Amino acid sequence: MNIGLFFGSFNPIHVGHLIIANHIAENSDLDQVWFVVTPHNPHKKKSTLLDDHHRLQMVNIAVEDYPKLSVSNIEFDLPQPSYTVNTLINIGEKYPQHQFSLIMGEDNLKSFPRWKNYETILDNHHIYVYPRVADEKAMNELLSHQKIHKIDAPIVEISSTFIRKGIAAQKDIRPLLPQNVWQYLDEMNFYK
Fold first, then answer.
1. CA–CA distance from 161 to each of 20, 44, 61, 100, 167 (Å)?
2. Is pTM, for the whole model, over 0.90?
3. 8 A C-beta contact, residue 191 and residue 164
4. Averaged pLDDT, 23-38
5. In a domain, 191, yes or no
6. What is the per-residue pLDDT across 172-190, written as a single tens digit (0 to 9) for each?
7. Within a domain: 88
8. What total of structural domains would you count in the chain?
């Protein structure tokens, strides 16, 4: 199977994540999209994150009704912070029967040349890029690379930061979250 890996903190997962992942799963040559819950992104402060297992649980309940979407906690057992190149090596060894590709936003493609061993990633994996609204488009030489595929997907500008701030300010942000994720957050009293 050809699996697209959608990496993120998912702090929390929201409808934007689901819209993009499901769109790519349904409208590309990928068979499935796996959400890879990242315990510690090297570009984010660990202190701002909910516990790994709560974020993993929210992603699990968010995707339970989507047959082409799945969840991976592969990075939970890897050294922190998590570097994509190391995760790809590890997941390839654990699931040699699958081919793995990356899914990233156009905004992340701009910083991709600064990722650890990005050339190795590009040599061994395809990258599916979904559009983002940005001040400066990621129009660079990478977009023309044979292993980079720009996906015509809906532009979704919802952020987990916006959601966390909304919850803290006691705003009704329910439409931005899958209902079962909202219920989990509310019951656990997170982000308040």
1. 18, 12, 20, 28, 10
2. yes
3. yes
4. 96
5. no
6. 999 999 999 999 999 999 9
7. yes
8. 1
- The reply to whether 166 falls in a domain is no
Q: Which domain holds residue 148?
A: 2-157
What confidence score (pLDDT) does residue 89 get?
Answer: 96
Assess contact for 13 and 35: CB atoms under 8 A: yes
Say if residues 109 and 129 touch (Cβ distance below 8 Å). yes
Using alpha carbons, select from 134, 39, 115, 124 the residue that is nearest to residue 77. Answer: 39
170 in any annotated domain: no
Query: To which H or E segment does residue 22 belong?
Result: helix 15-26
Mapped onto helix, strand or coil, the DSSP state of residue 148 is strand
Q: In what order do the strands lie in the sheet with 99-105?
A: 69-72, 32-37, 2-8, 99-105, 127-130, 148-150
CATH of the domain at 84: 3.40.50.620
| Residue 107 per-residue DSSP state | H
